[in-house]
Specification:
heterodimer, A: 297 residues, mainly alpha, ABC transporter involved in vitamin B12 uptake, BtuC, 0% strand, B: 284 residues, Rossmann fold, 6-stranded mixed beta sheet, 4-stranded antiparallel beta sheet, 7 helices, P-loop_NTPase (chain B), ATP-binding cassette domain-containing protein (chain B), nucleotide-binding (chain B), ATP binding (chain B), Metal_Ion_Import_ABC (chain B)
């Protein structure tokens, strides 16, 4: 009896009946997931060096408010989500140039956004799955026009990052020196917040507002535990993010559960493994220093 | 040892790199300095001394175009200052970089050459060669590919000097670059800065509260205290009667074995315990 219950539970979490047919159904989601992995993985290291993890959370709550308002009004949910994200990102970018200010602004915005979102959802009379999906992610929701929108925005974010990559890295690591060199540090910072707002808005469509950090922060944090190379950090971070999202979708489609627990778990496990590897390496010391002279023992 | 006053040939014909004219800075009714005139010529090493709150950092900010003057003007290479410039090499206070920063030492140096350029951080062969050269000249070749955040404070500061000199700037602006370094690193870092100005004839404006590590290199001193300032060679400015007049209270300047110790500056200007190697009157 208990055994049978357990098996049911197991099937609900990992089901692989009619897997081929299901796979065809969620093809769009997998494509979308891979693209989001690319975006999240690329922007993540900048989120980390600019200390914006909390900002991502704040942006995602306002994005959620925008999306639920769009749901209530019957307009495009992605557009609503983007409107909310950009508003939050710009507010945080313009008002919060100092970390302490920024954190308090985010802490003020976040519950407000969440509250608004809950209000809009409570007023919404449509399918309740749509409501839950905004917070925790959904899997089969990506139809063709939506996919196109996600792809276009993602490509814009990636191009934007590539264009400002070097001055953005400089300004992120060493703001004062970059400013002294004449870099438009404030403009760069606001432009980055816009890209971050867009990236957050598209991520929400797959993993949901509450779990965006698993896509925009965890993969980069994991990569930064094992490498400090300016080339391998984004590459690894992208690899981790794509693995988490696509892997999560592939595991999720068999069972009837939302996709996000799978994504967040894979992402978390990758982080744990990277931490262990990083810690082992720290203990061994020597991070690529050349010996001062030939070492003889 | 090297106490001759004219170490650097200063020709009056050389256009000043930095020209400060009738500059006044006041916050409300608190005036930091009034009518400040200063020309810094190519190859000249000017130390800006004074205690906290006398406007040393504000002066740097004004040169970087981040602080508006109440009156007067500052020109860099004949043009009014803008918000930062590629002709400036800026060396900030030693501040540890965040653990996990995804940059190696050589990437930080490369920013000094092409950090302003848009695009992906791919460096041309010429840039890579220049980075190698700079790393060698600051003695950092051994840790060129090490993550910057894992370097010690002294090593990071060498990399910052490398970054500042990599673009061969005409003016090196140093904001307390020796702070929190041990004596050995203080000497090494200040020698690196001095070598660079000799090699490229760059002007140096060096803000510090302790003149001793750079005493042998300084051509002129700008001393700020109590809303007043004095400009001259160290021998002209760092004298008991001059500082006493500035502080309005008896101050004694003691020279001992090539070091300068300032004693008896008012309490507000902070006495300091490490008399041996600090200008005491200028302590925070």
């Amino acid at each position: 009896m208990i055994l049978a219950d357990n098996q049911d539970l197991w099937h609900q979490i990992f089901g692989f009946d009619n897997y081929g047919e299901l796979l065809a159904l969620v093809k769009n989601s997998i494509i979308a997931g891979a693209i989001l992995g690319l975006v999240g993985g690329l922007i993540g290291p900048f989120v980390m060096t600019r200390d914006l993890a909390f900002a991502v959370h704040g942006i995602s709550e306002l994005s959620f408010a925008g999306a639920s308002a769009a749901l209530l009004l019957g307009v495009n949910v992605v557009a609503g989500s983007i409107a909310g994200s950009l508003l939050a990102a710009l507010l945080i970018g313009v008002l919060g140039s100092r970390a302490r200010e920024r954190n308090s602004i985010i802490a003020v915005l976040m519950p407000f956004g969440l509250g608004l979102g809950i209000l809009f959802l409570a007023l919404y009379k449509g399918r309740s799955a749509n409501k839950f999906g905004l917070l925790t992610g959904q899997i089969v929701s990506v139809d063709n026009p939506q996919l196109l929108l996600l792809v276009v925005i993602s490509v814009a974010v990636v191009i934007g990052l590539f264009v400002m990559w070097r001055p953005l890295s400089f300004a992120s690591v060493d703001e004062d020196v970059a400013r002294a060199k004449g870099l438009p540090v404030t403009t760069i910072s606001i432009a980055f917040m816009v890209l971050l707002g867009l990236a957050t808005a598209v991520s929400i469509q797959i993993v949901g507002a509450l779990l965006v950090l698993s896509l925009l922060v965890t993969p980069a944090a994991a990569a930064m535990r094992v490498t400090a190379s300016p080339l391998f950090t984004p590459l690894l971070s992208v690899a981790f993010a794509v693995t988490s999202v696509v892997g999560g979708i592939l595991l999720a489609i068999g069972g009837g559960l939302p996709i996000s627990p799978y994504v967040t778990t894979i992402s978390f496990l990758i982080y744990v493994v990277c931490r262990v590897i990083g810690a082992a390496r720290d203990r061994r010391g020597n991070k690529g220093r050349l010996p001062a002279a030939t070492v003889k023992s | 040892m090297s106490d001759s006053p004219n170490r650097t040939p200063l020709t009056d014909s050389a256009e000043p790199v930095l020209r400060v004219r009738a500059a006044t800075l006041a916050f409300g009714d608190r005036e930091l300095w009034r009518n400040l005139n200063l020309d810094v010529r190519p190859g000249e090493f000017v130390a800006v001394l004074g205690s906290n709150g006398t406007g040393k950092t504000s002066l740097l900010k004004a040169i970087l175009g981040q602080q508006k003057l109440t009156a007067g003007s500052i020109d860099l290479l004949g043009e009014p200052v803008t918000r930062g410039s590629r002709q400036i090499g800026y060396i900030p206070q030693q501040k540890m970089l965040e653990q996990g920063t995804p940059l190696r030492a050589r990437d930080l140096v490369a920013f000094g050459i092409n950090g302003h350029r848009w695009g992906l951080p791919v460096s041309s062969r010429a840039v890579r060669r220049r980075v190698d050269e700079v790393l060698e000249s600051v003695g950092a070749t051994a840790y060129a590919t090490v993550p910057v955040a894992t370097l010690s404070g002294g090593e990071q500061q060498r990399i910052r000097v490398g970054q500042a000199i990599a673009g061969s700037p005409r003016l090196l602006l140093c904001d307390e670059p020796l702070l929190s370094l041990d004596l050995n690193h203080q000497r090494q870092v200040s020698e690196l800065i001095d070598e660079q100005r000799r090699a490229t004839n760059a002007a140096v404006v060096f803000v510090t509260h302790d003149v001793n590590p750079i005493l042998g290199m300084v051509d002129r001193v700008l001393y700020l205290a109590g809303g007043r300032f004095r400009i001259g060679t160290p021998d002209e400015v760092l004298r008991s009667e001059v500082l006493s007049a500035m502080y309005g209270t008896p101050v004694e300047v003691i020279r001992s074995r090539g070091r300068i110790i300032v004693m008896g500056a008012p309490e507000g200007y902070g006495a300091h315990d490490h008399l041996e190697h600090h200008v005491t009157g200028a302590q925070p």
